[in-house]
Amino acid sequence: MAKSISIYPLGVGDAFTEKFWYSNMVFNVDGREIFIDCPAYIPKMLAENNRVGDQQVTIDKYKEIMITHMHADHVGGLEELAYMQYFKTENPSRIYAPTWLLQDIWTHLRTAIEESPRAGNGIASFDWYFEPVPMGKVHDFGGFTVEHRMTNHLPRTIAYMFDFGNFKLGYSSDTGFDPSLIEWLDQADVVLHECRFGPTDVLGGDLKLFHCSIEDLLTLPESFQRKTHLYHYADDTFDDDPLKPNYDIGKYRLLVQNKTLKLL
After folding, report:
1. Range 5-262 has CATH code 3.60.15.10
2. What is the mean pLDDT of the chain?
3. Are 206 and 223 in contact (CB under 8 A)?
């Protein structure tokens, strides 16, 4: 059982944000740091965080990373990490994901980093830069387990359920409104759920197919709302104070960038 659990959001914004950084988190479990997703512009993101944030985060801390899906705002930083390890790969970062997602990650990266002057024959493999760790339906992290399931998003995206024995944490990842996913997440003590505020009919399509609107989330029971923190939101969600959002958010709370959320 975990003695201490906290979440540190390095970013809370959506894919079009200019005000925030892309959504990604650090989970701290009894001092063990696990990163959820790895967006682009890591050095700039960390530099700003270290000026204004609750915690100091350096790029060498990226030793364990869990990935949700292949959109650039979630995996764009993996190439940056690979180049940071270009000449020092004796202790590669671990990347946790289902086998099919690990394969997609390497397919995405290989055209940029497969050719390497350090590789003996000039061709490097995925495990030259990273230690890919395939996750089963339930993965044992030693001290806690993580279960995953698919969400309503494209490309294929997975939500996570962390079970610490005495506490459960649900992470929706990117998803359209999905009652079955909500039911699955509701077993958790605390939920982090993505949310779209404002219009969803943009660019000739409806974002509600792939992202969850606040209108749909407000139909859920108050018990679910009270334990859920919202992230992956747009720049106009609040002006200066996240405690004073520009929208009715019911009993939900906004996850705040660069602010520690202590759970246990």
Report:
1. yes
2. 93
3. no
